[in-house]
Amino acid sequence: MTVRWPDLDSLELLLLVAEQGSLGKAAKLHGITQASASRRLDTLERELGVPLLHRSTTGSRLTPQGQVVIDWARATLAAAGDLLEGVQALRRRRDVSVRVAASMTIAEYLMPGWLVALRRALPEVEVGLRVVNSNVVCQMVQEGEIDVGFVESPSVPQGLTGYHVAQDRLVVVVAPRHPWAARRGAPLEVADLASTPLVVREPGSGTRYTLDRVLAGWEVAAPALELSSNAAVKVAVETGVAPAVLSVLAVAAELREGRLIEVPVRGLDLRRALSAVWRGRTRLAGPAAELVRLAATSRAES
């Protein structure tokens, strides 16, 4: 047998009738007409299967069964009140905090500016930021560990929503003493890049994913060195270990100062989208949505 839960508003109305001794007074306090109140209580009696009120020209009073129901209703309404207060507290906590994870390139070179903008817009918001590679960011979103993530991958796993917030470009870089540095802007062939051992980021990073994707179909040499941070890769390249492919964001200072040299590659598109990701197909709300909006606005203004 299917049991229907009693309507909480009807229970509250019944409680008012018991306190006021009048259906009309209870209806007025409840903000409805007496006829509507009567219909609600008739429905409640049918749903519960017991008589609740004796109605007369002098007023309304509870039946013995109604008195028992009232005692239970008080506890039920109090519990419902506790539930609503608890949910409101959770909502307030969500509205003043946001859990974020970002891939290393985004976290190092873009996230600081985005967080400054978020602090200006919502000064009361606390941000918890985790810095991991793009693969781990997506895992954390899927498992509900964070509210929103930022990744360098061109696609996102099933079950996640992705939103393009910025554009990036990978570049081939070498030390000034490397033979490729003497090409004086002459483009490198893709086959030469693919066949050369490189210093690369670890599997799961957005940079490594993009590189593997654009070189798919070519005979690719084994890495010269595999490292888990942009900083470590740059040091290895500067010391002459091997060339590398990194975000232009990560090497801007080194290129400007001449510590690294960019080598163009003929016919190779190394542009990539940077995306915000979150669970499901719903729209973000609160500070997480504002952070994504500010990130996208920053892209439009840059």
CATH topology of the largest domain: D-Maltodextrin-Binding Protein, domain 2
Overall domain count: 3
Tell me the radius of gyration.
32 Å
Secondary structure class reads alpha/beta
Query: What is the annotated CATH architecture of the largest domain?
Result: 3-Layer(aba) Sandwich
Q: Residue ranges: pLDDT <50 for 5 or more in a row?
A: none
The CATH first-level class of the largest domain comes to Alpha Beta
How would you characterize the largest beta sheet?
7 strands, mixed
Proportion of β residues? Answer: 15-25%
Helix content estimate: 40-55%
Protein name: Transcriptional regulator
Organism: Sphaerimonospora thailandensis
Family: Belongs to the LysR transcriptional regulatory family.
Keywords: DNA-binding, Transcription, Transcription regulation
How would you characterize the overall build of this protein?
With 302 residues, the chain is an alpha/beta fold. It is built from twelve helices and eleven strands. The protein has helices spanning 8-20, 23-30, 34-48, 64-95, 104-109, 111-121, 134-142, 190-194, 206-214, 230-238, 248-257, 286-301; strands at residues 53-56, 59-62, 97-102, 126-131, 148-151, 160-174, 199-201, 225-227, 244-247, 261-263, 271-279. Strands 3, 4, 5, 6, 9, 10 and 11 form a seven-stranded mixed sheet that branches. A two-stranded antiparallel ribbon has the order 1-2. The model has no long low-confidence stretch (mean pLDDT 88).
